[in-house]
Amino acid sequence: MKPLSPPIKFGLVATLIAAASLLTCNVNSAAELKLQNGDHICLVGNALGERLQHHNEWEALLHQRFPTLNLTVRNLCFPGDEPVDRIRSENFGDPDVHLAHSQASVILFFFGYNESFAGEAGLEQFAKQITELVEHTQATDYGKGTPRIVLVSPIAFEKTGDSNLPDGEAHNARLAMYTEVLREAAVTADVVFADVFTPTQTMFADNDERMTLNGCHLNDLGYAGFANVFDKALFGEGGPKTVDPKVLAEINDKNFHWWHRYRAVNGFSIYGGRGKAGSDGTYDNTDVMERERAILDQMTAIRDARIWKLANGESVADKADDSGTLAFINPKTNVGRPNDPNVTRGKLGSLDYSPAAEQQKMFTLADGFEIQLVASEEQFPDLANPVALNFDNKGRLWVATMPSYPHWKPKTKLDDKLLILEDTDGDGVSDTCKTFAGGLHQPTGFELTADGAYIAEQPDILVARDTDGDDKADVVTRKLFGFDTADSHHGISAFEWGPGGNLYFQEGTFKFSQVESPYGLTRLGEAGIWAYHPKNEKISVFSNFAFANPWGHVFDAWGQNFIGDASPGNSYWAAPISGRIDYPLKHPGGSQHRRVASLGGGDPKFEFPTFYKKRIRPLSGCAMISSRHFPPEMQGNFLVTNVIGDRGVLNHEVREEGSGFVGKEVPPLLMCDDGNFRPVDIQIAPDGSLYIVDWHNALIGHLQHNLRDPSRDHSHGRIWRIKHKTRPLLQPAKIAGEPIPALLELLKVPEDRTRYRARRELAARDTSEVSSALKTWMGSLDKNEEGYEHQMLEALWMHQTHNVINRELLETMLSAKDHRARAAATRVLSFWLDSVPNHAALLQKCIADEHPRVRLEGVRAVSFLQGDDAVELALGVLEFEMDDYLQYTLDETMRRLEQ
């Protein structure tokens, strides 16, 4: 099993547990929890409970405290769950279904954190919902009689000492009120109340080391200390003082298998709308995949029995014996059926795979260009099913691979990878291939940091760090969580650092996500783009209009974002209005799924404008040409990959018009006659050439074939690069480890990706040192230089990256001569609304700007405000002539403000 977090030192765990034992001597319970032999304990609620299956010290203490009771523990929590509102993908099943499946006899409810953001005004509703939930649960038999209930309080908010994060004072005042509501509800209903708020306040105060990721979510040390806090809150004194590593290891393995059963990716193809797809006439996805979930149930139960033995001091075999589980259902392939339309549509290639040298002969390139093989599975077998690429600050190529796609199969090794490929002699061909992180699960996207990477692993985003410089991840943290798992094909993807330091990533349709943060709960249904700032830990839905499966995102030199939507093949040029959308789930008896045709709302007749006429679908990656290696006439062109019909890299000219952009298709940069060529990601390299990830698979259709179709390929993968025949390659800039002043000078270069990597390096440097150097750098800039305003914009973006509010610089850029600089500054203002005093006056200036691009950004910023002042600001744009998109944006803003 792959560790989801770094290994815990048991000596430190023992120290924390011993210290925590002093904190919970006087827990006030409304009733005493008494466990019985064979109890099935289910955890229900938010991220505090959900993450207990990845930090298993508490469960280890539970079994060690009650070694003869043969307890079964199943975690049914989802981050963001509330007593009533718990959004899920189609047909996931209501809470009672899963409690019955697990035969719950004891239920631990974890609520109160997310609800606390409603403050005092929300107390009455929270009390009512908790009371109704308890009454419903007490009246339901899940297979073992009336369940016993525990109401678990939220933990305290830690004062981390990080000035970028809330200090927790207001949080703890609210959390104390919601803890009291839970206490009173427990007394009234005569159920157990577990106060973990009070002892965690003390635990945080008594430990010098930080114990949370962000103030509200425990880290490894926090969960190690929480184990004993929670044990005593439930059962009082007398529990074990240390965790048995053998018991812990077995629980880790048990919960790994349960996790993949309960939080299975591809839910929409198991029990949802695509469950009956991919049939060969005998077995559909539901038949095949529900059998696998049943096998995972059996494997989980086998590990339960091993846990019981270990807790009793007995020995077990080194490896669990899963030979007695159900047989897998192995469907036949549906490839090769007579007159299969998927062949003519390009969704099927050939099962006779060509060597890379033969494939290279099948490319047709634009005049003046050539293609070169960088790496293939022939040289590096680990390069199987590559899905995304990036270049680090040393100029090395990183590639994510996922041979487990589309769905990890029980009893097989889970070992998707993030690789580092390096060209040591400068000939454009990779000479070495290292595994930075192995044991991953379908990393559909990733983005680099100065010492590691953010890695998609739905429903989580991991942060993998190399702390000793050996190019291997030695610290892995589940950093963000609560994303849905309905479809691996629509998983978290298209990671991109925004110029202001936000990390953007995207999800596709069928998915319903709930993400907790120090600022509250954010929900996203069906599809959209997330924005996350690592400094202040703010996460928001950046855009959530009618996407299907967005798989491309890139910024131009002025911070304008362009978005590619894979399934329909559409490309968009703007940041549509977004905002929190709540999906009601009533418990008991309510529907857990609500399909939303368009989260953008507004006029249903309005067709959101793409900036060029789509000729063919789909697209799976995009880039903008910003490289002196390419001819001048191609600068700013928008490239998209096509993986079905044309199988190539399509090329589009782009120009600004009104509040947005228009484009037209020009001859493609590359086409390929090999039906297995599947270009899924592209990026401009440090030397100015264009690199392409070739998924290289005969089967590309996710819907057309069973998830277990034996013709799916799990071994091929290639990386290509396109370069100009006569124009010189660029000398890659030195970035990693360079002095801050030298990095700031790189913000002047023409290439977008060079500035991108320089910003990424600067983001990791000390904030005070960067701020000081920025002040000096800005003072040295020549106001008469053509690029002066862009350089000053880069300085503003760097302030945003380091979460340093500079109102003077912001106002300067809002008054820049170039409207593109003013529009970009207005975007920065939209992220600083909570921090800039008198922001309404600045927004009014933006809305009254002479250029529609700036007014558009002003309207978008207003959409994040509330109240009459926001409406009045939005109405200010009516004084100006509006194009269709600006009119749509205003209408949508007004609609949301009126709500």
Describe what this molecule looks like in 3D.
With 899 residues, the chain is an alpha+beta fold. It has a 5-stranded parallel sheet, with helices on both faces. Helix 5 packs parallel to helix 6 (169-189), helix 17 (788-801) packs parallel to helix 19 and helix 19 packs antiparallel against helix 20. The radius of gyration is 28 Å and the shape is globular. The two termini are 48 Å apart.
Features:
single chain; 23 helices; 5-stranded antiparallel β-sheet; about 900 residues; alpha+beta; 29 strands; globular; 5-stranded parallel β-sheet
Regions with pLDDT < 50 over 5+ consecutive residues? Answer: 1-29, 579-606
How much is the radius of gyration in Å? Answer: 28 Å
Helical stretch count? 23
Q: What fraction, in percent, of the residue positions are helical? A: 25-40%
Quick synopsis:
The chain is of the alpha+beta class. Helix 9 packs antiparallel against helix 11.
How is this fold's topology laid out?
Elements: H1 10-20, E1 40-45, H2 47-50, H3 57-65, E2 72-75, H4 95-101, E3 106-110, H5 123-138, E4 148-152, H6 169-189, E5 192-194, H7 197-206, H8 220-235, H9 245-262, H10 267-270, H11 285-311, H12 341-344, H13 356-360, E6 363-365, E7 369-376, E8 386-391, E9 397-401, E10 416-422, E11 432-440, E12 446-449, E13 452-457, E14 460-465, E15 475-481, E16 493-497, E17 503-517, E18 520-533, E19 538-543, E20 550-555, E21 561-565, E22 570-572, E23 622-624, E24 638-642, E25 648-657, E26 660-672, E27 679-684, E28 690-694, E29 718-724, H14 740-746, H15 752-763, H16 767-780, H17 788-801, H18 807-814, H19 819-831, H20 839-847, H21 852-862, H22 868-875, H23 884-898
Parallel strand pairs: 1-2, 1-3, 3-4, 4-5
Antiparallel strand pairs: 6-26, 7-29, 8-9, 9-10, 10-11, 12-13, 13-14, 14-15, 16-17, 17-18, 18-19, 20-21, 21-22, 23-24, 24-25, 25-26, 27-28, 28-29
